Structures are given as C-alpha cells and as structure tokens.
Give the backbone structure.
Amino acid sequence: MTAEAVQLHTRQAAGLQSRSARFRARVTGRLRLGLYAELTRYGLCRDLVQAIEMPSAKIPIAVRALRDGDVPSLFSADAAGNDPSERLEVAWRLAFIDKGARSGFVAVDTRNETPCYVQWLFGSRDNGFIAKLGGFPPLAAHEALLENAYTPPAYRGLGIMSAAMALIAERAAAFGARHVLTFVGVDNIASLKGCQRAGFHPHFIHRCTRLCFGVITRDRFELLAADDPRRTAKF
C-alpha cells in the first residue's frame, strides 16, 4: 500500500469514527431524556445599546468568524482524552455543525492564533434553522441568539467565556439586532455568572417538557415582569 493510500485510508477511517461518534451522541442525548423530562432555563438578554464594562480574559484574545480549518483544533478527540462526557460534548458540537449551523464565531489566542472558544450567533434570518433545533422562540428582527458555546479543555479557567461572549454578541449589530438572547439552565450557576459578566441578565423563563425520549416536546416562554427580582439577581 502506498503512502498516499495509507493517508486516504486513515482519513476515511477517521471520518467513519467521527460520524459514528456523532450518531452515538444523538442516541445518548435521546436516551438521557427518558420517558419524561422537565427542563427550566433562563432566557438571558443583553441590550446592545446599553454600555457594559467589557470583561477581560487572562490571555489576549480576538474574535473572528469560524473557519473550516478551526474545527479540528476546537474539537480534537485527543484533547477530549478518555473522558466520556468530554467526548460527548465534542460529538454534540460536531453534530450541531452537521445539522447546518452557520454564523459561528471563535475567539483565538492571539499569541499563537489558536482557536480557544466557539459560539454561534443567529438572527431572524435563521428562524428556519432555529425552528428545526427546537427549544427556542422565533427571533424578531431586532433580536439575535447566541448558542452552543464551547471552550477546549486546555483553555478553561482563563475567563475566556465572558470576554469572548461579550465580543461576539456585539457582532449582532451588523445585521440590525439590538437584543441578544442566550439560554442557560437555572441550576448552571457557573455559566450564569459568566453570562452576567458579559452583560446578560434574566429576561424570561423557558419551561420545556419532553416525552417519549424527546419525540414530543412542549415549550413555554414566560416573560419576567419588569419588577421581578430575578431580572436583577446576582449569580
């Protein structure tokens, strides 16, 4: 077998393994839902007109659009190691890309141009894709949605999430959005703190009921009253 054939065979095998991992991620996600599951999340909002104190990371970063060449670096199986939960996180993100997710942005470590964070930013033009995802309200023309953040293990604990999220949110102004939404489970305090540092605050509650391994889904979005103390809660 020639060297070129070996390389082709290796790429094909890696591709099959990757597709298999993504399929397993979908199946695992369904099974985790069980016959009945309830999920409560905060719908957080940032008003781009209101100035915030921009958070900073412990390393220098810059934000740009996601490129195809960033994917192997961000979602390396080697970086995930033998941790099943981390491998599942990677497979979920790759499956998200497979579904047709566009408008991704990355933060890069400017010391070596390595991607160190990724998140997708959607506008009302993406409502068709958002509807296919499920679990999100349709966006108005003045709204945007930040979804599916991921920081590779080697870059965690450096304050990148808040700094990158704040910068990526501001890209929504380019397509006319003023309010940027993101969703976080009410018990995920670490992420809620990170979002708050990036200028996001509770705006509504999302209650989701899933039946029969997620085959049947019911979503309710409840706007928080202006005087609701959860709007100004500190996480």
